[in-house]
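Hi C.,

You asked whether I'd gotten around to modeling the 87-residue construct. I have! Everything is below, sequence then structure, no commentary in between.
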Amino acid sequence: MTTAYEKAQLAGQNAVRTAILDAAIRLLADEGPAALTVRRISGDVGCSTKVIYTMFGGKDGLVEALWRRASPGSGGRWRRRRAVTTR
């Protein structure tokens, strides 16, 4: 079975970043802020925690990236995901 991380590696660094952010958004939307840990996100993506620390500098950097992604002009991915999970 190929993990999201392995698939993303084949596509490049931007795909790895997207896979991590997508997993974080799913966890946040489905389970709330308490589920948003580096260990949990890395487990869901199938990568090591080191990958997240390298790409984002840790949980604070990851949260900042989520915030930027959800901000106006980002395409509203968070808002669309949230709307789907609250129905």
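If it helps when you're writing up: The chain has six helices and no strands.

Thanks,
B.
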